[in-house]
Amino acid sequence: MHLRELIKSHAQAKPAGVPDWMLGFFKRYSISFANGLSDTNTHVCWLQSRNFTIDLRLPIEIDQVLAKPLIDYSAQELQQFANYEGWLATSVWDGRMLSWCDTDISLQLHNRWTEPAILKRVGNCMVEFCPSDVYVEDWRLQPSAPGPLVGLKLLVERELASGRVRHTGGGLIVCGDYAGLVLGRAKPLSNPAGKPLKMLVAEAAGDAAALSHLFAIETSVAKGCLDTGFEVAYSTHAHLLKTQLFPLDGFEYPVQDADYEAEGAMLIRQTLEIDGIVCVRLFTIDTLEAQLDFAQTSATTAEAAAWFDSESPTLTRYTKVLV
User: Fold this and answer.
1) pLDDT tens for each residue of 183-217
2) Which domain holds residue 111?
3) CATH, residue 206
4) Of 22, 145, 153, 224, which has the maximum CB count within 10 A?
C-alpha cells in the first residue's frame, strides 16, 4: 500500500498532544545565550508530530565530514562526526511548557538539552525560552503547502529472511512538504562508565566494527511530496544526502507481530529493500492526518489587527518572510 492510501484509508489523530501551532517543520533562525553570544549558522531542524519530536543539529557544510568509510576518517573527522546531534523523543505539553522524555534514541549518549521549553508562537516565529534563561531560541516554521501530518514510531527494522535486527526505536514524521526519519541503534551501547560519545569514538579509532556500532543511528530531514518522494537535505550520514528518505509504498495495516503482542494489533508494517536486502519496519501510530494547513500566520485580536493596518505605512517598510 502507498503511504497516500494508508493515510486515506486509516486516518486517525491522537485526542491529546501538542497544539496545532506547534506542528510541522521548524528550522532554527538563531540561539542567543545569557553571555551575549548568538549563533545563526548551525543547521537545527525540529519536526513535530502530535506526541514526539525529531531533532537534528549539524555544523555548516564546510565543517561536515565527507561520505567515506568510517575507518578512513582521521581522528579530527571522527570528533567532528561525534559532535553531531540527532534524536527522537516523546514530547509532553502542559499548556505552557514542552518537555521531552524517552530520550535514549539519540546519537549522543547524554542529554545535551535538559531544560523544558517555554514556547510562544507569533506568525511563523516560535520563540523558545528555557526556565534558567541561559538561552533563547528563535524557530521559523518552514513554508509548506497544506498537506499530510504523519507520525509513526518505529519499533524495529529487521531483515526479512534472517530476522537480523538492524535498528530498534526511532520514527518517521511527514509534515506537508517535509519529512524526517530516525533509526536507532540495533542494541544499546555498553557504556557503564557513562562516557560521552566523543570519548568512546576516540577510544574506537581504528576499530571498524566498534565505530560502526557507535554511529549505527540515523537522523535525516528531507523535502518533497507524496507524489515523488522526499529527498534528503540534511543527515547525520553524508552518503544519504540527495537520496530518497524512504520508499512511499510497501505499507500494510493493521498487522500483528509475535514480538510486540503488548502493542496490540494496531501496527503498521512496511516492507522495503535496503542495499539489496529485503527488510521490514514495524511502527505504531502517533497520528495519520490527511491535511493540515501549516499556516505562516497566527491569531491576534481585532484591535491589534486594526492597529497593524493603520500603522502599516511604517510597519511594513521592510518586512519580509524570514525562514
Assistant:
1) 999 999 999 999 999 999 999 999 999 999 999 99
2) 3-292
3) 2.40.128.280
4) 153
Q: Which residue has the cell 497520528?
A: 287
> pTM score, two decimals?
0.97
How far is Cα 141 from Cα 294, in angstroms, rounded to an integer?
8
CA separation for the pair 238, 241 (Å, rounded): 6
Task: Confirm whether 235 is domain-assigned.
Answer: yes
Count of structural domains, the chain: 1
Answer yes or no: is 302 within a domain: no
Q: In this structure, are residues 238 and 64 in contact, taking their beta carbons and an 8 Å threshold?
A: yes
What are the distances in angstroms from CA 123 to CA 60, 296, 302?
27, 6, 15
Cα–Cα distance, 220 to 273 (Å, whole number)? 18
Do the domain assignments include residue 301? no
In a domain, 300, yes or no: no
Angle at 24 between CA 260 and CA 317, to 5 degrees: 170
